[in-house]
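Our preliminary data section would be incomplete without showing what the modeling component actually yields. Below, a chain of 297 amino acids is followed by its predicted structure, encoded as tokens that our downstream tools consume directly.
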Amino acid sequence: MRITVTGQMGQVVLSMLERAPLAVAVTALGRPVLDLEQLASICPAIVATRPDIIVNAAAFTAVDLAESQEAAAQRVNGAAAGEVARAAAELGVPVIQISTDYVFDGSLDRPYRENDAIGPISAYGRSKLAGEEAVAATTPNHAILRTAWVFSPFGKNFVRTMLRLAETHNEIGVVADQAGCPTNALDIGDAIFSVARNLVERPSDPSLRGVFHMGARGEAVWADVAEAIFMERERLGGKPVRVKRIATSDYPTPARRPANSRLDSSKLQTFHGVGLPHWQASLAHCVRRLLSTAKTG
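Predicted structure:
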């Protein structure tokens, strides 16, 4: 199976490159060959790779910056996603669009299901919703995978930030009134390969297409995640670090975050047979890997 994925340095792309099965060839397209801000470059660049399936993993992910650069976010996350889907339609292959919990307003008191009302409260969320709509309008042969609270050994993310702060702080204030499903990008990569195989091998099965939630098992608030990081770090010989639980209002940001980012991923399990591991196990593995790399590096 030949998979073309947009982007080269994102957490999901790097995870896919690391975890690709032996029978899968992954081509990662990024600048200068493919530039999501140059819409005319997208379709020709993807079509030239002749993939069996396309994964659109590249995105404008600077959530706070999107508030002041919404036009750019809309172009990359919205219009460019439509162009990626157009390439899939031209080739007659499926497309997987990676999306986000930010398409919801976070007001529900239970995990979100795929058919719950959408209502993004940030520029980033609006741009990602535009991408979902562009893909769905361009080709029916798609799977939109919404995930949340992504971390990994790669790039910038919450885990790496907490480990960096732990080097110089004994106490760190962490938001305790936003709930979600912390999800390791390496697990996302594994899940994408499974979904991709299903889409390619069962081209006429409508139950495999549409919108799916793809979050880790379990749920937490950010303060819970931080405590788990510091406990694993201390277990491996690091100094104790205390978490001070704070409210979102104590840590203002340009973009509003959903208070509830929990995703019900049972539909993905039912139709694709894909379920991600519990966040705590994947988090502990990520922390161990990062600390081991730091020691050897």
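Residues 2-148+184-215+262-276 form a domain with the Rossmann fold fold (CATH 3.40.50.720). The longest strand covers residues 95-100. Preliminary results of this kind motivate Aim 1 of the renewal.
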